[in-house]
Amino acid sequence: MNHELQAERTHNQSGFTLIELLVSISIIAILASVGMVVYSSTQKTARLSKRAEDLKAIQATLELYKTSTGQYPIAVNNFVCIPSILAPTYMPKIPTDPSDSTLCYQYQSDASGIEYKVASNPTLVTSGEMKQSDFLSRPTLVDPARDADASANCSLNTSGTVSGWAYYSGQTACTYVTSGGAPPPPPPPPPAGPSLVGPTGTVNKGTSVNVSWNDVASPLPKDWIAVFVVGSANTNDRGWLYINCTQTSGAAPSSGTCIFPLSESLVPGQYEFRYLLNDGFTSSMTSGTFNVQ
């Protein structure tokens, strides 16, 4: 009898059975697989966001270059890497694709330097890094002239076939059409004298808008442009850029345009842009008001 009790105690104190170990290993493998999928998806989303940020930064830099020189860099007929002439004078460093530092963003202009295209590297499409669904998830990465919808070249066809190029265009983007459609009329000339012009109507938070200033008499490198809730103090901005369109002071053009990102955290309401002097809180110009939703 004692021998049987001892055997039972020994059995109860033994380790996992083979079946229990196999079940545990299977559960761990499933959890690891789920974790890798979530991690991979998160990393890819981050790369998509970084590409959008890089292309906007390049676009803003090209506008600054044009303000300074009177034209965009010339690169006719074929796409090339972003012109090295932009750095470090107009931007600290030319970015490369977040998935591979050897992949450069692409650039092409017309012969006169008045229009341009900027693209992500075509290798991203052939390698599968960027699929149609990825482009459609970031509509601002797609040039409407390249979305296989010739009848709507000035707006993105989200139900069509997006060819895998990610373009940002110059100020006359819709003249780059494959067929059909007509370019939009040119924007009205800016008002005479110093002025600050922002968006009108209603815009969505988390998007980017154009902000232009004109004929500033004595601009300084640390003059800055910021977005404010209408009626708020100059010390309470909701986002800012120096007039070289970055948050690092540099060139100080008397007229120019910045592509200004509106934060996702903006509370819906009425906003305006202000031009402030030399890193201080004295405002010299205010744009018209616009709504954020």
UniProtKB/TrEMBL annotation:
Residues 179-203 are annotated as: Disordered. NCBIfam families: IV_pilin_GFxxxE. GO terms for biological process: protein secretion by the type II secretion system. It comes from Candidatus Daviesbacteria bacterium RIFCSPHIGHO2_12_FULL_37_16. GO terms for cellular component: membrane; type II protein secretion system complex. Keywords: Membrane, Methylation, Transmembrane, Transmembrane helix. It is a single-pass membrane protein. It holds the Pfam family N_methyl. InterPro entries: Bac_GSPG_pilin, N_methyl_site, Pilin-like, T2SS_protein-GspG_C. It comes from the Bacteria. Its main location: membrane. It is found in: Membrane. Residues 182-193 have a biased composition (Pro residues). This is Type II secretion system protein GspG C-terminal domain-containing protein. Residues 42-120 form the Type II secretion system protein GspG C-terminal domain.
